[in-house]
Known about the structure:
Elements: H1 12-29, H2 31-51, E1 57-59, H3 60-76, H4 83-95, H5 102-127, H6 137-143, H7 154-169, H8 171-184, H9 186-192, H10 197-210, E2 217-220, E3 225-227, E4 230-232, E5 237-240, H11 242-246, E6 277-278, E7 285-286, H12 290-305, E8 308-310, E9 332-337, H13 340-349
Antiparallel strand pairs: 1-9, 2-5, 3-4, 6-7, 8-9
Helix pairs in contact: 1-2, 1-7, 2-3, 2-12, 3-4, 3-7, 3-8, 4-5, 4-7, 5-7, 6-7, 8-12, 10-12
The protein binds protoporphyrin IX containing FE.
Amino acid sequence: xxxxxxxxxxxxxxxxxxxxxxxxxxxxxxxxxxxxxxxxxxxxxxxxxxxxxxxxxxxxxxxxxxxxxxxxxxxxxxxxxxxxxxxxxxxxxxxxxxxxxxxxxxxxxxxxxxxxxxxxxxxxxxxxxxxxxxxxxxxxxxxxxxxxxxxxxxxxxxxxxxxxxxxxxxxxxxxxxxxxxxxxxxxxxxxxxxxxxxxxxxxxxxxxxxxxxxxxxxxxxxxxxxxxxxxxxxxxxxxxxxxxxxxxxxxxxxxxxxxxxxxxxxxxxxxxxxxxxxxxxxxxxxxxxxxxxxxxxxxxxxxxxxxxxxxxxxxxxxxxxxxxxxxxxxxxxxxxxxxxxxxxxxxxxx
Length: 350
Ligand code: HEM
């Protein structure tokens, strides 16, 4: 592709939004911030797991969405009264991102509820009835001044907060996929139990490669381009085939087999693995939360792999005509047993 793409001039409001998004997101995406988020999420996960042995069944997708919601909100300094309903709204927003019809309307209603909740929170912090932890995302958003010196109105502040909180919850899709993967590959589950950080990261890469979230991304050429000699006029709709690239047999052996080892000694090249968009993360269509996603999956699944549980009959299909796709049942587990060694480790960590 012609790399000397001219910069597009953005309207002032969109430009201010981009600057703010970069500022607020950097509070979650630096290495220390990622470690802090992982700590909160794993602590929320350990707490949740304590109740599982007493329950008839656990739906991993739903449980992970609540754990991720608690972890990210704690990390962002956002107090939660009812993690369950907020998690449901955050999932609804991710679930409706590329779909017309009922899922889209549900997403819009969920967005309106979350924006109202966070807008009220911003007002409460400004009135002094709620305290935002110093340096937290909430604190920074509430005190933010745009280039013109103005503070954010409550609705805009709520939108910015939501942009930081919402995407983390999408990781619950991959938590459920991981349950699906380990059911089919007990050897991988054994390896994950060995507490090998490099293997856990390779597992996270393979999970994102193997399972579909967004099968493709669409965008319009903002100027006349050329791709390998092929002229692409400005305005052309371009689709990036994420699923195809992740399963391309020219890039890897046995693309339809689940083998974390393929990433063990060789981290994936930027353009080889594109489950969360492609190109450069600062200028291309690539998710800025990849490191967070990998770190969360690499921290959560070795813990879950150490649990003993049964997998009952359920609908484990993953429809490829749904976007984002998901394990239909959410991946249900039953009769969860927490081995004594895991209980001891969680207590020591806590
Ligand atoms: C299941 C895990 C995730 C998947 C599959 C995913 C996927 C994606 C995709 C496909 C895009 C669109 C890229 C584009 O077209 O430009 C995107 C954008 C984005 N993602 Fe993620 N993401 C995930 C997790 C996260 C996490 C954990 C964060 C952390 C905060 C995050 C933050 C964002 C943001 C802020 C954008 C918008 C970027 C922009 O507008 O410039 N994502 N993600």
